[in-house]
């Protein structure tokens, strides 16, 4: 499914100011709010679409990446793909309170909290970053309790409906199409209470375990590149959804090449004879060895550009160039005959 332009979604121009974007999102949130459109799946999708648009356009860095590369540019920026409306309420709860003067929705359950996001650093070599690779990592994270399946209660007893809010998680009164409500103090918004907590997780609904994950590293990553793995963070408390995992790339130094975005630099030692007379030498590239011409009279520091032999772009199809820097090697030890020939040449 093709995503619509975020500026079009909110109905603002590409040079819209922050206040204008916020106002446009408020209007969309009011129009497509789930409490105003109960059971309307299309309105719910429009609500999520507007929320994603606001998340990007209200953030300077995400907006800059979106303006430059479109939706593809949001990869690695921490952009949040909302899975459901409760996820939106959890993210923008304070904003909805500012918009409407009260909590986001009577549907929200504060007891089931989304799990924390995690981060992990992965080291890759230049060759691995060039071709792309797959890395296996091992990490500790909170997982749904296998004994109670995330409920926090002993399996034989389960959770009991909260007698105060009768399972709604909130108490209050309705006004128009919104519910002006406060979180139920008895169950903390969960709608249910624990009478017999799970003996394995002690009622939290999750336990810490070690996990092995396989991560695909795309070609073109650079030092500091951030990859987002949705749903690979920690499990939420009391059965809440998973957080995300942010993978940060650490590019190891390479003895042969120096990288500058998608341009590679390498040094090519040549003899002073080759430098003076010209010739051919073999140069290492990430595609394998190539032979290049050395012009007559080449001096140290002069370069040759090998087009398309550099690094692939992370978000693009073209490759950069490889710049070969010549280094003329002067011999330190000469025979008497070699010395005589050189003196004769320069006399």
Q: Low-confidence runs (pLDDT<50, min 5 residues)?
A: 102-110
What is the correct CATH architecture of the domain at 1-104? Orthogonal Bundle
Kindly provide the radius of gyration, computed on alpha-carbon positions and rounded to a whole number of angstroms.
30 Å
Mind telling me the CATH class of the domain at 1-104?
A: Mainly Alpha
| CATH fold title of the domain at 1-104 | Helix Hairpins
DSSP strand (E) fraction?
A: 25-35%
Structural write-up:
- This protein is α+β, with helices and mostly antiparallel strands.
- It contains 8 helices and 15 strands.
- It has helices at 6-10, 18-32, 41-57, 60-69, 85-100, 126-131, 272-277, 336-346; strands spanning 118-124, 133-144, 159-161, 170-175, 178-183, 192-194, 206-217, 226-229, 245-251, 258-260, 263-271, 279-285, 288-294, 303-306, 322-329.
- A hairpin with a 2-residue loop joins strand 12 (279-285) and strand 13 (288-294).
- Helix 2 runs antiparallel to helix 3 (41-57).
- The protein starts with 5 loop residues before the first helix and ends with a helix.
- The model is unreliable at 102-110 (pLDDT under 50).
Task: Report a brief summary of the structure.
With 347 residues, this protein is α+β, with helices and mostly antiparallel strands.
Q: Topology, pairings included?
A:
Blueprint: H1 6-10, H2 18-32, H3 41-57, H4 60-69, H5 85-100, E1 118-124, H6 126-131, E2 133-144, E3 159-161, E4 170-175, E5 178-183, E6 192-194, E7 206-217, E8 226-229, E9 245-251, E10 258-260, E11 263-271, H7 272-277, E12 279-285, E13 288-294, E14 303-306, E15 322-329, H8 336-346
Parallel strand pairs: 1-9, 11-15
Antiparallel strand pairs: 2-7, 3-6, 4-5, 8-9, 10-11, 12-13, 14-15
Helix pairs in contact: 2-3
């Amino acid at each position: 499914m093709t995503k619509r332009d975020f500026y079009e979604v909110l109905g603002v121009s590409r040079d819209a100011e922050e206040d204008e974007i916020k106002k446009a999102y408020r209007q969309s949130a009011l129009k497509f709010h789930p409490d105003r459109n109960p059971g309307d799946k299309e309105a719910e999708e429009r609500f999520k679409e507007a929320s994603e648009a606001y998340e990007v356009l209200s953030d300077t860095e995400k907006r800059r990446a979106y303006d430059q590369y479109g939706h593809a540019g949001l990869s690695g920026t921490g952009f949040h793909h909302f899975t459901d409306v409760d996820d939106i309420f959890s993210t923008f709860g304070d904003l909805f309170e500012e918009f409407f003067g009260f909590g986001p929705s009577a549907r929200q359950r504060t007891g089931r909290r989304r799990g924390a996001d995690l981060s992990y650093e992965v080291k890759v070599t230049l060759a691995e970053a060039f071709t792309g690779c797959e890395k296996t990592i091992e990490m500790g994270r909170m997982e749904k309790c296998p004994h109670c399946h995330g409920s926090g209660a002993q399996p034989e007893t389960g959770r009991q409906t909260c007698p105060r809010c009768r399972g709604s998680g909130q108490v209050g009164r309705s006004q128009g199409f919104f519910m002006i409500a406060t979180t139920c103090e008895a169950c903390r918004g969960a709608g249910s209470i624990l009478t017999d907590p799970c003996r394995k997780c002690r009622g939290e609904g999750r336990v810490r375990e070690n996990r092995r994950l396989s991560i695909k590293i795309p070609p073109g990553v650079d030092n500091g590149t951030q990859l987002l793995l949705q749903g690979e963070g920690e499990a939420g408390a009391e059965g809440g959804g998973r957080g995300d995992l942010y993978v940060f790339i650490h590019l190891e130094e390479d003895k042969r090449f120096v990288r500058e975005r998608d341009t590679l630099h390498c040094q090519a030692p040549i003899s002073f004879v080759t430098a003076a007379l010209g010739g051919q030498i073999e140069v290492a590239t990430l595609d394998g060895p190539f032979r290049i011409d050395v012009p007559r009279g080449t001096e140290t520091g002069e370069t040759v550009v090998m087009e398309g032999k550099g690094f692939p772009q992370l978000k693009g199809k073209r490759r950069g160039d490889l710049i070969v820097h010549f280094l003329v090697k002067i011999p330190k030890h000469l025979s008497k005959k070699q010395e005589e020939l050189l003196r004769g040449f320069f006399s």
